[in-house]
Structures are given as C-alpha cells and as structure tokens.
Records
---
Amino acid sequence: MDPVIPVSAHERIYLDHAATTPLSPAARDAMAGFWREGGGFGNPSGVHREARAARRALDDTRELIGDDLGVEAGNVIFTSGGTESDNLAIIGGWAARMATGRDTFAGLPSMVVAAFEHHAVLEAARAAAAADGFVLHEVPSTADGLVDLDALEAVLDDRVAFVSVMAANNEVGTVQPMAAVSSLVHRHAPSAWLHTDAVQAAPWCDLAPLMADVDLLSISAHKFGGPSGTGVLALGPGAGVHPVIHGGGQERERRSGTPDVASVLGMGAAWADRPAGHPDQVAAVTRRRQRLEGILVARMPGLAISGAEVERLPNITHLRISGVEAEALVLLADEAGLAISAGASCASGALQPSHVLLAMGCPEDAARSGVRISLGTGTSEAEVDRVAEVFPGLVARLRD
Ligand code: PLP
C-alpha cells in the first residue's frame, strides 16, 4: 500500500469526544486556582480552617450540581467517575433496595437492564446477580438502537426491584425514551428504583427533567470538559445506596475515601459551562454532524448510519461500513491524523463484535464494522469538511 497522506502536515483532528474531552479552560482555571491559593491540601473531613475551606469547595459544587438536577445537595455523591457511579448505583442501590424490604417483591426479586448498557452497568449487574442470586433480565434493543419498550414491558412485574436504562448510548448516540421507560416501570414495577447512566447525555442535555423521571443518575466529568477520575451519583428522594467502598464514612457513609477536591472543583466549573447551557453550541455541533453524515452518505456506497431515523446526541455519528474491519480503519485513520474509535474492542488478540450492535440485531460481521466519530464544541466546519474528504479514501484502501 502507498503511504497514507495525513489530513494536514501539522495538525491532528480529534473526533473522539465521546471517549474523553479536552479539559476546558474554566475547569483548568478552577483547579489551578485551588492549588495556587494553598488551601488545596486541606482534608475536607477535618475541623480546622484548611479543612473547612476544602469542605466548602466540595459543598459549593454539590449545591451547584444538586440545584441543576433538582435534588438535595446532600444527595450528590462524589465518585471517581462514571464507572464507579454506575457500580455504586447497581451494586449499592440493589443492596439498599433489598435492605428496605426484600419481601416487598413477590417471589425471587429481579433486576432489569438494557442489553446495550455500558460495561460499567452491565458487568456490575452480572456480578451482583451472581453474588446475590437474583434474576437479571437484559432487554434487547430495536434495530435503531432504542431500548425495546415492548420487551421491557414484558419483563416488568412486581418482582422487579431495580431497573437501569442509559439516557443515551455511548457507541451509537441514540437518546433513549426515558419518560416512557419511567412510566412503564412505575406502572408495572411500582416498587422498583430506576437508574440511568447519563454519562453521554450530560454534556448536551438538560438533566433536570431526566432526574425527575428516575431515582439514581450517573455522570462523569471528563465527558464535558472536566478532569477524568471524577463523577457524581445523584439520588432522588427515597433512593439510597449501601457503600461499595468502605472506610472512613465520607459522603454521608455512602462512599469512603478522601475526595479529590481540585478535580471536583474542575468538574463544577466544566458543568456550569457545558454545552447543554449554550443552545447555540448544541445547534452548531448538530449542524456539523449532519453535514458530515450528508457528505459521507453521498460519497460512500454501503455506508449505514446507526440510529439514523431516531433522536441522537448532537455529536455522535456511528458508521457501519460493509466489508471493513473497524479496528483496521481506526488505525489507518490515526495514521492519517484522525482520532476516531471503534465500538468493537480487541480482547485477547481477537476483535470482539460490539455488544451494542449485537443487541441491535446486527450480524457478527456488521458488529465488527462500526466506527464512531464524535465531535466536540471545538470541532470546526473546516475540520468536518477535511474529514469528509479524506475518510472515503481510507475506506477504499481497506476494501482494495
Ligand atoms: N457510562 C458511559 C455511557 C460511558 O460512555 C462511560 C465512558 O466511556 C462510562 C460510563 C464510564 O465513565 P468513566 O470513564 O468516567 O469511568
């Protein structure tokens, strides 16, 4: 093969914002300010002035996020990110639900999750089911990447104690019908708690209406311009969690460990400035994604856009390209200066088909051919046009 011609002699084009985003200037300033002032070393559990300053910084962020979500500040639990928030919700939420009355649930209690959940939910639920001996239902997806509401309704009954459906899928970007999910759960499994993984929705969506529909909600700072390794699990009224991490009893006995105060401050600053609060940014990213999709569809035969007919996040486009292995395309794109990702992952030397695409009913081959391009607020129209120009050539090379 001829050498790959880079998109630009000097620059790279980063199109993997669903994996992580660059730290926003607001987050960087908030973190640097905290360290600079010299109070950043205070342990928020103490009683002296330094400790109180650190605690105030945590509590201000707790209040900010709690107010926006419509939950009490005390129900905003700081965690080490989306994975921990999901584990705490699933494992700790299940334990708390059982503690308040396993007998409420007729017969053997059960949990329901969508089959296309992030592994942080899916694997936590499988591990909890194996450890606690409860029944776990994994509800399939429609071909469009939405949770199948008929299949969900079919497994909901008064034995269901906990349900988890993500607000938006991280691989294909489909926005889930959470109001409909919530109303089905309330109708058929009235004692169940409903959790949503809002990690991908958080940058783009007003989460207050979503929080009103659920009992527990997970977010992760590094998806909206905050630092990685920091997140939140928010609890609605009546919901609770048993700790998964045991120790000094921080976060009101729900998550032990000295919090990373600077990162929490960075998360707060990024939260306050996230695109969801700037409709012009959301509209611009949506327009650019649509432009990219329009050009690619016109130029590339055999291209399918996952979830093309349903509501999706502004920034994610997921392409299934027949006859092309996703990982090879991602590597070739990298060589050309484009950072994109594959849903399918390489475990033990073999490319695994994406569990999201399998849940959507794709055959195994197609489930190995999906790539995700995810834009950010900093992605320019010129970059989109450059990608649209270069991408079809990369695919053609792999098909040769
Ligand atoms: N849930 C979803 C939907 C995600 O996209 C991710 C990250 O990719 C996570 C959970 C895990 O979040 P973190 O990287 O903060 O552990």
Note: Residues 48 and 272 are 29 Å apart (CA to CA).
---
Amino acid sequence: MATPEAGQYRRIATEEAFSTPELFDAMRAWAAAAPADEPDQDFWSYVFSQDLPGLQRVRRQLLDLEDERLQIMDANGVDVHLLSLTAPGVQTLDNGAATLLAARVNDQLAEVIARHPGRFAGLAAVAPQDPKAATVEIERAVRELGLNGVVINSHTRSEYLDDEKYWPIFETAEGLGAPIYIHPRSPSALMAQAYKKYGLETGIYGFQAETGLHGIRLICSGVFDRFPGLQIVLGHLGEGIPFWLWRVDYMHPVRSSHNSRPSLELKPSEYFKRNFMITTSGMNWHPALRFCIEAVGADNVMFAIDYPYQLTEGAVEFMNDAPISAEDKHKIFHENAERVFRIRSC
Ligand code: MN
C-alpha cells in the first residue's frame, strides 16, 4: 500500500440516513394512528407535522439521494455514504407490509448505488418482526443486490435481539459475513416512561440508553459464544459502552439470588473488542474519540456523520483535526469501513 500523504484521506461515512416517499407515507400513517404511549410516536409526529426550517431540511435531505446529498459530499471531501433507511425503518409496521416494504427499499437502494459507482454503499433494511422473512431478505440483499450489511433499529415492539427467536438473523448474517448495524431509536415501552418528562427519549440520552442496553444484552445473552463471527456495529462511539467496559467486566461474575446471567466463555469486554465496531456518528468530541481508541483500539472505530441529522461540515472537521496519528485517521476515515463492510478500496 502506498504511503498516503498526510491530510489526504478517503472519507467513508458509515451511518448516513435516507428514506423514500413510500416509507414516509407509511410512517405518517403509523405516527397518526399509534397509541400516545408508543415511544417513537411523539418524535415522528413532530418530524412530520412541524414546519421548522431544520425539519424541512431533514425531510428534504432524507428523500434526496442523488442531488443535494452528492453536492454536500463533494463540497466536504466525503467520498462514500454507507446508506441506511432511517430509524425506526419498517419495524413499526405489520409483518407482511414491513417485509414487502423492506425489499422494495433495498431494491431502490441497490439501483442508486449502481448509478453512482464508488459513491454509495448500503445496508439492507429488514423486518425483524418476521425473523424467517428477515433471513430471506438478508440473504437476497447481500448475495443478489450486493448490499454491505444490515441495519436494525434497536428494539422491535419492545423486544430485543437476544431473544432466541431472532437468532436465525444472526446465523444468517454471520454466515454471509454481513455486519449488523444496530441503530438507535426511542427506548422500548419498558423504559420509555422515565424519559418523557424532560423529553429525554431521543438523541439527548434515550437513543444511547436504549441502544447501549441492547448491546449489553447481546453480550450477556451468550449470543457471541453461539455466533463468534457475528459483527455488530454501534454508532455514537459505542453508545456509552466503551466507558463502562471495565465495570461490566468487574460486575459480570458477581452472582446473587436475583440475577440469572448465563456464564460466558470470555469477559464482556473481550466480546466488545472482538464482535463490535463503533462509529463516530453524532459524537464530534476529541476526548471521547481518544478514549475510545485507547479502550477498544483504532481498528474498531469508523467515521460517520449521521447525515442529515448532523451537519457534514462539523463531522469532517472534527475528524480532520483529531489529535490522533495519521495512521489511525486512515483506519477511521476509510480502511476499517473497507474491511468490515467490504467496500472496494481505491
Ligand atoms: Mn443515525
């Protein structure tokens, strides 16, 4: 490999959201009909009903794939968006409709990627609420459409993927070498009530609490003893887990009459380092980045913007200016994403 010039980086952004008009219609109908205590209902009703300039921009930019998005990428030196259907995807819809819609979205995504060689990669949308159908779609999306992995938006109807009924999804993903990006959504109904009083259920804290819990549940369930090659990706610098790893290791063997944690072959932190990648989405903060590199290694960190919810300029500037080695910057900007998502290097 040629030694890259300092400051010259290929930039692959790995948590970049889009939607389709059909998905918007389905989400609007769902948000209008969902019970008021449905955790994501408030947020999506707000996104669809308010005409604030920021929300108009987000709605426009979610639906645009080939125009404004590419201009913003070009203006900021972003080479590739790894695209994923925005949360909560199809996970709130009825099983049959969700499965059909996921397949249509994946077809559309593959067409966009094919029209812009080298600019886009994509994660397959799936409907985990029908695990069998989800495995069929993952297989099709990866093998036939050439998509680079799978996105699942944390809980599905307040259930988590450590439930064994979802393990066929892991088996399929592991077999294909397809990473699963577990993207945040509002906390499950089990925990959502405690977030409402101060509007904490979204990006300020609830997304992280929900998705960090999901990651810890997967580790403690033993899913990685069963599927040692499974690769999970978490945004927001690991949704808080890296900071907590030492204490999870320390507490995990402590047993008492009221916990029933299964025994594990490895320490929790060893699974995190072996089976998880983390991305910088929405966490443009150098102290946290440096801590994560020290805690989990630069080979496990990837660049992400969280377009269009976060601005491209800030994310690129954050990583350009990061006080880390050029070698680590190359890993984070592109080399790790090329390896994990099998994005052609150039
Ligand atoms: Mn995101």
Note: The chain has one domain: 12-340.
---
Amino acid sequence: MFKLPKLPYEYGALEPYIDAQTMEIHYTRHHQAYIDNLNKALEAHPDLAKKSLEELLTQLKQLPESIQTAVRNNAGGHFNHSLFWQWMKKNGGGQPKGPLADEIKNTFGSFDEFQKKFNDAAKTRFGSGWSWLVRDTSGKLAVISTANQDATIMNGLQPLLGLDVWEHAYYLKYQWRRPDYINAWWNVVNWDRVIELYEK
Ligand code: MN
C-alpha cells in the first residue's frame, strides 16, 4: 500500500507565494487521491503492489492492460507530487551554485534563458500538466512539459525540477493568471534538493 509522504513544512510555510489553503487541499486531497486510486488499481494484483513507483512507471507496458491507464495517471501523480513538495521550501528561490549552475549556463546560455524556457513550457502546456528540467537519455539537460500526470521517467528522463501547472495548484489564489503563479513559484524553489538530484 502506498502512503502519503510527510510534508516537509507547514501548509502556510510558502506564503505569500503559495497560500496555505491551496497547499492543504493540494496535499491532503489531490495527492491523497492519486495514492488511493493507485492502491485501488493494484488491489487485484498483489504481486504488483510490491513494486516501487519507479518500477511501475518504467515498466508500464508490461503491466496488465486493464490497469495501465490508472497506474500511469495515479502512480505518476503520486511520484510527481512527492517530488514537488521537496522542490519547494520557505525562503527558497534565487539561483543554484556550482556544477549545476555551470551546466545550466552551458546548455541554455544563461540562467535567465533557462528560466524563460521553463516558464514558456509551463505557460504553453495546454490544459493540465507539468513543466520540467530533466536530464535526457543522452545525459544533457533539457526543458520539457508533460500532459496530465505523466512522469518523465516513463520516457527515461530524470526529473531535476518540476512545476505543477494543474489549475488545482494555483486557482484559489491566482485564478486564470497562471503566469503570475509561475513567476511567484520561483521564490520558493528549493535548489538544494535540485542539486541533490543533479548529483545523484
Ligand atoms: Mn497537483
């Protein structure tokens, strides 16, 4: 059985950028629902319930066809949100230092260019989805977006930083203004966690 991981801060910790009510509903309702639905999908397949999220998502095509969509959406949702909480912290923001900063500069030209590319991916993702900084299969950094709860590891892309642009992530505070949410979010980015994943 998959369980909701502990949130590493209080619901109001990311105010004023992410409001406490959105945080609480996002974590206790939306994230919990992905977990409940994943557990339900695996109920009739006790052998699969022993697999890790990573195994389920990277071996999706080998799963029984009847549960592939449910696992894709809900294991993806659980995986993405578990990382998303860690990618934010109180008094976050700024820019990374060290080798990650250098590689961002070498890949995108500058941090500002990277940020612009990431923001464009987030703004132009139609409907619900995520924007990402990933390490691609050739080892290079890349900015992409995915639809719904698709996890980048399904396609062999290692997620280093991701932003949830589902309306449930911002609508209470920002309504239709997704770009304002995206700009505000950079103030809470936890670069220490990004660097940990980068150095793995
Ligand atoms: Mn979400």
Note: Residues 20-86 form a domain with the Helix Hairpins fold (CATH 1.10.287.990).
